[in-house]
Design brief:
The chain is an all-alpha fold and 89 residues long. The protein has a single domain, classed as Acyl-CoA Binding Protein. The protein is built from 4 helices and no strands. Helix 1 packs across helix 4 and helix 2 packs across helix 3. It is flat and about 35 Å long. It starts with a helix and ends with a helix. The model has no long low-confidence stretch (mean pLDDT 95).
Length: 89
């Protein structure tokens, strides 16, 4: 299985992460996903009245220097870790 296929598989798995997954981890996953699928940030930073969108934009911007392949690989690793952590007591 190639990296892109594995990434797509883990993107589906990420949809089933428990609701108690921390916002910080959700934002990390969001940033990595956007970097892997879109590349560098291509929008303006949302204004202060849009805190949720701003946090998501910041998470994406934080990983902007990663290549798409590196972002895919990091995303896979992060989803796998989140799944493992949810299984552990």
């Amino acid at each position: 299985m190639g990296l892109k296929e594995e990434f797509e598989e883990y993107a589906e798995k990420a949809k089933t992460l428990p609701e108690n997954t921390s916002n910080e981890n959700k934002l990390i996953l969001y940033g990595l996903y956007k970097q892997a699928t879109v590349g560098a940030v291509n929008t303006s930073r949302p204004g202060v009245f849009y805190q949720r969108d701003r946090a998501k934009w910041d998470a994406w911007k934080a990983v902007e220097a990663k290549s798409k392949d590196d972002a895919m690989s990091d995303y896979i690793t992060k989803v796998a870790k989140e799944q493992h952590d949810q299984v552990q007591p």
